[in-house]
Amino acid sequence: MAGCVLESEDSRFFNAALYFQDGELLHVHRKVYLPTYGLFDEQRYFAAGNRFSTFSAALGSDQARQWKVGILICEEMWHPSAPGLLARQGVDLFICTSASPGRGVAPGAGLGTAHSYDAITRTYGQLYTSYLLYTNRSGYEDGVAFWGGSRVIGPDGSVIAEASRKEEMLQAELSLAQLRRTRIAFPLLRDERHDLESDQ
Exposure string (b/e) for 59-71, b if CB count within 10 Å is 16 or more? Predict the structure, then answer.
């Protein structure tokens, strides 16, 4: 997977994530939610995407079927509609890329953003009974610190693997059998009512 800036035929630029499999481009996600607060000003430079869609990917040769994968880019994790739309499509694995700078101090002398992403990643894993891969930038650029903290979350919300604030490579085993067992025990997606409508 790789992040890039994509230019459209009408000269608009998109913050995008590309997923490759066996050397072939399998899926493109154009970032939908562009932050324009604090030190962020993405809408000044980028156009917004307009959809969240899952795609099928083979992860390992011994899996019973292909995985349904959905991509979220940074700010999109802060908008519940984004993972919700992917969950409606039966997502098995969220891949969340991020360039989150360290901001705020949380109780216990930790970074506020690190505490927030800890809660968000574990909540989405458990709430949508899906695996979640979160990767965040680490290091410094122009006086801004990026706190790292990449992690793998299980479908029960548990932390399977986690990196420090430094650049690291994580390895974890993902299992469709474990995903099935979790979803049988907690049938949240099965029982979701997609037919409901708002009065507004």
Answer: eeeeeeeebbbbb
Residue 100 per-residue DSSP state: P
What's the order of all strands across the beta sheet hosting 24-30? 2-7, 13-21, 24-30
Distance of CA 110 to the CA centre of its chain: 22
Domain presence at residue 114: yes
Domains held by the chain: number? 1
pTM: 0.89
pLDDT band for position 102 (cuts 50, 70, 90): low
Dist CA 15 CA 199 (whole Å): 34
In a domain, 9, yes or no: no
Report if residue 135 sits inside a domain: yes
Position 111 scores a pLDDT of: 56
Distance, in Å, from the CA atom of 24 to the CA atom of 107, rounded to the nearest integer, reads 45
Cite the DSSP H helix spans in the chain.
Answer: 81-88, 112-127, 176-185
Q: How far is CA 91 from CA 54, 136, 148, in A?
A: 6, 21, 25
CATH of the domain at 75: 3.60.110.10
Mean pLDDT over the full length of the chain:
89
Q: For residue 172, count other CB atoms closer than 10 A to its CB.
A: 13
Residue 161 clears pLDDT 60, i.e. is over it: yes
Q: Can you tell me the distance from the alpha carbon of 10 to that of 30, in angstroms, rounded to the nearest whole number?
A: 15
Looking at residue 96, what is its pLDDT? 96
